[in-house]
Design brief:
The chain is of the alpha+beta class. Helices cover 42% and strands 18% of the residues. Strand 3 and strand 4 form a beta hairpin. It is elongated.
């Protein structure tokens, strides 16, 4: 599953290439004009070389600007914050919202509806979709029961009701798998780190991601990593 690029990122990259080509080309063209008027001796040949370089650089920069106009734009409205995210192609899998940093749930190109639920422990508002296999409160880290279509709590929620395991657990990334670009935004959101920091963690795997978190939270986060092609392990904190 390929990582879908944002249209704004592609435009920014092409604009940077155009700037880095047109500016040196324009400077070289000015120098060439000066040499045509004042050159003598060995600099006579230099002006033709400089002219060729300048024209090639300017032409490449103009071509990059023209390519910017061809970049496709496919808008995806985040169901959490209603912010529009624009991609170079229609996403067929979950993508991250630039505004709220949440994973937009998508199945076969269809944006899923999200639902609100309040934590019964701290009254904080949380969100879930039909893809959610479990829900951890973003404020108090407790498990929030989510009823299934028949109105009954899921087996994981039943287990939580029978036994509240307060043992602190560690979450360890064993391997990021082959879909590295897909798992990077998942770890960014999970750890509140930037892209380069997450890539360093992946390169250094196995690596402990979180320490001393509730067992259910560790298990659900491990399940997220597994769902995106990675390998994770949970174990009681020493």
């Amino acid at each position: 599953m390929s990582d879908i690029e944002r249209s704004s990122n592609i435009r920014e990259e092409k604009a940077q290439r155009a700037f880095m080509s047109i500016v040196p080309g324009a400077i070289g063209l000015v120098i060439t004009i000066i040499l045509f008027f004042y050159a003598s001796g060995w600099t006579l040949g230099l002006r033709w070389v400089l002219l060729g370089f300048s024209l090639v650089a300017i032409s490449y920069g103009v071509w990059q600007l023209m390519e910017m106009r061809k970049i496709a734009s496919h808008a995806v409205v985040c169901p959490f914050c209603d912010r529009k995210n624009v991609f170079s192609e229609p996403p067929s899998h979950d993508v991250r919202c630039d505004n709220c940093n949440r994973e937009i749930p998508i199945i076969d190109g269809r944006i899923l509806q999200v639902f609100q639920v309040r934590c019964g422990f701290c009254n904080a508002l949380n969100w879930y979709s039909e893809k959610s296999t479990g829900l951890i409160c973003e404020e108090c880290d407790r498990v929030i029961p989510i009823a299934n279509e028949e109105g009954a709590a899921s087996p994981a929620m039943d287990a939580y009701a029978r036994h509240d395991d307060n043992t602190p657990y560690n979450l360890t990334l064993i391997d990021a798998g082959a879909r590295r670009e897909e798992i990077i935004p998942v770890l960014q959101k999970m750890l509140a780190l930037n892209r380069n920091q997450v890539k360093q963690i992946i390169d250094d795997a196995p690596m402990v991601l979180l320490q001393g978190v509730p067992k259910k939270k560790a298990e659900l986060l491990a399940a997220q990593i597994t769902a995106h092609g990675g390998q994770a392990d949970t174990s009681p904190s020493a």
